[in-house]
């Protein structure tokens, strides 16, 4: 049996992997980047030391290997054949293209785990001058995602905008994403972005150090409520 767990929500996909793993007595872990046919055969055909069901988990095989490589294609075909007699679980840190998924077993069990569209709509809407709309959008996102994860995603977006402002293309960014980030960066000055990044970083530090009684959600709401988006907030006087 072949199972594929993939998508950009790695935290949730890890939880799904751990849930599936509980159904097996023994798990053998392999790195997809350095995978060989010998590794796969040894892991799949070795009997369980404890008896009961066993499975092979391969991490980032499809993500870390060139999709058009002949070696990758041969190994993928071999993996599909091995999965006919053994349980193979592929865990990927990104969403795998449908063209690649279609090459896997017709009996494939697929788990695509993505962040909700509302999260990216909120990140794309980050801009000075519209605090009320941002707060409403932020509240909708928190219905599906943890405030800590959303905070990390906001910080990541602000770092990307700072890089764009500085003439640097963020890593692993497609051309359409770069164009969208460029348009969004034009809504800020570099000073605003740096101030916003500092505010968000201080929020996180204050929560982790116990310097504030407020939660990361409450501090983020205070930051978003600033019409200039990134105004300083005095942590000592909440």
Task: Explain this structure.
The N and C termini lie far apart (55 Å). With 238 residues, the chain is of the alpha/beta class. The chain has 11 helices and 5 strands; from the N terminus they run βαβαβααβαβαααααα. The chain has 2 domains: 2-112, P-loop containing nucleotide triphosphate hydrolases (Rossmann fold), CATH 3.40.50.300; 117-224, Zinc Finger, Delta Prime, domain 3 (Up-down Bundle), CATH 1.20.272.10. This is DNA polymerase III delta N-terminal domain-containing protein. GO terms for molecular function: DNA binding.
Overview features:
238 residues, alpha/beta, Rossmann fold, Zinc Finger, Delta Prime, domain 3, 2 domains, 5-stranded parallel beta sheet, 11 helices, 51% helix, disordered C terminus
Structural class computed from helices and strand pairing: alpha/beta
**Any idea what the CATH architecture of the largest domain is?**
3-Layer(aba) Sandwich
Name the overall outline.
elongated
What is the overall pLDDT average? 87
User: Order of strands across the biggest sheet?
Assistant: 2-3-4-1-5
C-alpha end-to-end distance: 55 Å
Radius of gyration in whole Å, from Cα? Answer: 22 Å
> How many helix segments?
11
The H/E string reads: EHEHEHHEHEHHHHHH
Write down how many β-strands occur, each being a DSSP E stretch of 2 or more residues: 5
- Taken as a percent bin, the fraction of beta residues is 5-15%
* Percent in helix: 40-55%
Could you name the CATH topology of the largest domain?
Answer: Rossmann fold
Low-confidence spans: 231-238
The CATH C-level class name of the largest domain: Alpha Beta
Within CATH, the superfamily of the largest domain carries the name P-loop containing nucleotide triphosphate hydrolases
Organism: Candidatus Gottesmanbacteria bacterium RBG_16_52_11
GO molecular function: DNA binding
InterPro entries: DNA_pol3_clamp-load_cplx_C, P-loop_NTPase
Protein name: DNA polymerase III delta N-terminal domain-containing protein
